[in-house]
Amino acid sequence: MTALRLAFAAAPTPQARHALAALKRRHGTVDIDRADVVVALGGDGFVLQTLHRVMERGTPVFGMHRGSIGFLMNDYRLTGLQSRIAKATRETLHPLRMTVTRANGRKAQALAVNEVSLLRQLRQAAKIRILVDGVVRMDELIADGVLVSTPAGSTAYNLSAHGPIVPMGAELLALTPITAFRPRRWRGALLPAAAKVAFEILEADKRPVSATADHTEIRDVVRVEVAEDRAKRLTLLFDPEHNLEERVLKEQFAP
């Protein structure tokens, strides 16, 4: 079997940096733009950064846990890496594309692997109108915010906001309010993956809102559009006994 060309990337922590040095000594390394696989050392946040870094090339990412939260990570082991990657299961993800219009009329875009979230910027709750595929589904949500999550991100911020866990392959997105005040009992919705969601910010001058796609934040938005970007394919690799779909199922039965 021909050895895969591996590139290593590490979070800026002593634990991750120590693992980086050890793995490079044992396995060698190439630049990320020449790699067959990128091995990311850190936590879930660093894997997200790595996926964004390789998004244009679509290089598969194999994460090893050298950080705090490791839902998207495999166990760290120094030996047997080539064999593990060769046997790994693949999960294909499509990011969300966020298109925003700011109060000054300027537009911007960003991509999210986990979620796009809208949050109030000041002390007053946000007022947001929600449209799905051009149809107004909620004329006014009063809340701290609202988010749209991919299945991969459904166990992150979405779950903390009491949103549903979405199994991989379900072709669904989670639409989840963040501390809803009105309607108080609304817990969100599950939408087809092909749905196009738009948020219109009401009273934006009095109740400013920011929009964040993973780690990219844009402030003072008046309209936010969110849709899957099917042209972009991201690949995460998992040891067969710890594939992402199995982890999502396990999370739903966690005590």
Explain what the structure shows.
The chain has two domains: 6-93 and 233-252, Rossmann fold; 96-228, Probable inorganic polyphosphate/atp-NAD kinase, domain 2 (Tumour Suppressor Smad4, Sandwich), CATH 2.60.200.30. It is elongated, with a radius of gyration of 19 Å. Strand 13 and strand 14 (216-218) form a beta hairpin. It is 17% helix and 41% strand. It is α+β, with helices and mostly antiparallel strands. The termini are far apart.
Name the features.
11-stranded antiparallel sheet; Tumour Suppressor Smad4; alpha+beta; Rossmann fold; 255 residues; 16 strands; 2 domains; elongated
Radius of gyration: 19 Å
The 3D shape can be described as elongated
Low-confidence stretches: none
How many strand elements?
A: 16
Q: Quote the beta fraction.
A: 35-45%
Element order: H for helix, E for strand? EHEHEHEEEEEEHEEEEEEEH
Number of individual domains: 2
Annotated CATH topology of the largest domain: Tumour Suppressor Smad4
- CATH superfamily of the largest domain, by name, is Probable inorganic polyphosphate/atp-NAD kinase, domain 2
Question: How many angstroms separate the termini?
Answer: 43 Å
CATH top level label of the largest domain? Mainly Beta
Return the CATH architecture of the largest domain.
Sandwich
The largest β sheet comes out as: 11 strands, antiparallel
Secondary structure: helix percent: 10-25%
Going by helix content, strand content and strand pairing, the class is alpha+beta
- What's the average pLDDT? 92
The number of helical elements comes to 5
